[in-house]
Amino acid sequence: MNQVTLSAYLGLLIIGASFASAWVDFDKGLITDLDLHHSFPILALGPPAKIPSHLLNEFITSVAPHVSLVRNDTLSAQFAYNNDQLIAFVDETSGETKVYPNLVDVQPSHRPINISRAFNFVRLNESFPIDHTNFFITTGSSLFGSTLHQSSENNSSSNALRYLTHAVVQRNVTSNGRSYPTCGAGSTASFGFTKDGTVRSLAYLWHPAKLTGREIKPNSTDKIHESIKAQLEQFGQQTGRVKVDSLDVCFYDSAVGFIQPVLRYRATLHSDTAGQTLAVPTPLLGYIPIGEGSPEPISTPDSLPVDPTDAPSNPGHLNHKRGPRPDIKVGRYVVREDSWEFVTNAINFLKGLQHPFFFFTSPFAKFIDSQYYWAQPYMFISDKNNYINSVHLAQVEVHGNWHRFSTLHSGDDRVSLSAVPEEGYGGGAGGVLSYWLIRSCSVIPSPDDYAPKDWRMAFDPWFRLFNGLHAVAGARTPLWIADHSNPAFGRRLALGAEFVFGWLETVQNDPSNAGHPIDSHTGKPIGKASAVAVCGHQSDRVWQIENLGRPCCLIQYWYAD
Question: 329-559 domain in CATH 3.40.50?
Answer without folding.
Answer: yes
